[in-house]
Amino acid sequence: MITYQDAPLPKFGNYSTLGIGKPGEIVVLSGQLGADADGNFPTSDGVEQVKATFDNLGVALAAAGLGFEHVIGFRTYLVGREMVPDFMKGRMEKFPEIYPSGVYPPNTLLIIGGLVEEAARVEIEALAVRPAAS
After folding, report:
1. What would be one Pfam family of this protein (predicted)?
2. Are the CB atoms for 125 and 75 separated by under 8 Å?
């Protein structure tokens, strides 16, 4: 991912203002929730749901032969403004593992009234770019 140093700096968390994918196929990941493989939410804790959601994104990326380094943007949906601190904490706990360089993709954050499952507190979708064949 290429980022521009002269782009506006993020004001509300750890993310890049923009990202530009290198040539290759675009891969769109639908919104992932913090549920396990059986569709159960092992916890109602917001921080843990955020971390589980990133884990599920990792599984989806791996299925496409990609990793988090291929992600050029996230769109995050949180149920209620009270989820923002849990999201920030969960992301700060997870990002050093998935982005050891400290360079994060852009993220758009939306506050919504609910998700497809009542127990879901967060949903994150991603846009990634598959590297061009050499």
Report:
1. Ribonuc_L-PSP
2. yes
pLDDT at 2 over 50: no
Instruction: List the chain domain ranges.
Output: 26-129
Reported in sequence order, the residue ranges of the chain that DSSP labels E, i.e. its strands, are: 26-32, 71-79, 107-112, 122-129
Give the helix, strand, coil percentages of the chain, each rounded to 5.
30, 25, 45
Print burial letters for 119-130: b (CB count within 10 Å at least 16), e (below 16): ebbbbbbbbbbb
Amino acid sitting at position 57 = L
From CA 54, how far away is CA 1, in angstroms rounded?
19
How far is it, in rounded angstroms, from Cα 112 to Cα 134?
A: 42
- At 64-104, the pLDDT tens digits run 889 999 999 999 999 999 999 999 999 999 999 999 999 99
CATH superfamily of 26-129: RutC-like (3.30.1330.40)
Q: Take residue 94 and report the two structure tokens written for it.
A: 């997870």
Indicate the pTM of the whole model.
0.85
